[in-house]
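Sequence design from tokenized structure. All designs in this work follow the same two-part layout: the structure record, then the generated sequence. An example of the structure record is given first.
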């Protein structure tokens, strides 16, 4: 049984030439099909590599989104801290202090000027209210810089993922032809 030549091979030669050298074309046509099969295998491997790379980019996106969410929550909490510190002047003799989870502690005596801050590694320091506000504002600024950097990185990952998807679509189209 004779195998027909592959499309690229048939388009490069005239039909009359094919009939005059049938034995030669049978061999070459088979080689052309083997080349086509090889390129399909290569294409499939490339598509699998691209799919894996896309999964890596998608995982990076999820992690970055989680980190951005945590930074946004932290900024919101720091802003509430500043609002609370600024409102201490308006406090009456008895004040409720939130201890989290909807629970409050009633306090009758507190220093309006002293604030205990966590400065990292479990270290607490006492600062004046004004200095505490400045330190919290600095933390907000640092968090905003981190958000900006992470947003740029996120945009880069999105662009890489889009480019990868476009390349994969082109490869699939080429493989279907």
């Amino acid at each position: 049984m004779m195998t027909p030549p592959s499309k690229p091979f048939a388009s490069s030669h005239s039909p009359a030439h094919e009939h005059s050298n049938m034995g030669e074309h049978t061999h070459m046509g088979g080689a052309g099909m083997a080349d086509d099969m090889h390129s399909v295998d290569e294409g499939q491997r490339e598509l699998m590599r691209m799919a894996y790379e896309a999964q890596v980019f998608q995982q990076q996106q999820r992690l970055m989104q989680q980190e951005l969410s945590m930074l946004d929550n932290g900024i919101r909490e720091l802003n509430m801290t500043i609002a609370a510190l600024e409102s201490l002047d308006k406090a009456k003799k008895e004040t409720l202090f939130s201890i989290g989870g909807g629970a409050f502690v009633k306090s009758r005596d507190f220093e309006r000027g002293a604030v205990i801050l966590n400065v990292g590694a479990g270290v607490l320091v006492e600062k004046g209210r004004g200095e505490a506000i400045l330190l919290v504002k600095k933390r907000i600024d640092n968090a905003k810089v981190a958000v900006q950097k992470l947003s740029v990185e996120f945009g880069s990952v999105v662009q890489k993922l889009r480019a990868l998807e476009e390349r994969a679509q082109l490869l699939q189209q080429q493989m279907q032809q």
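Strands lie at 95-100, 103-107, 114-120, 123-128. We note this feature because it recurs in several other targets discussed in the main text.
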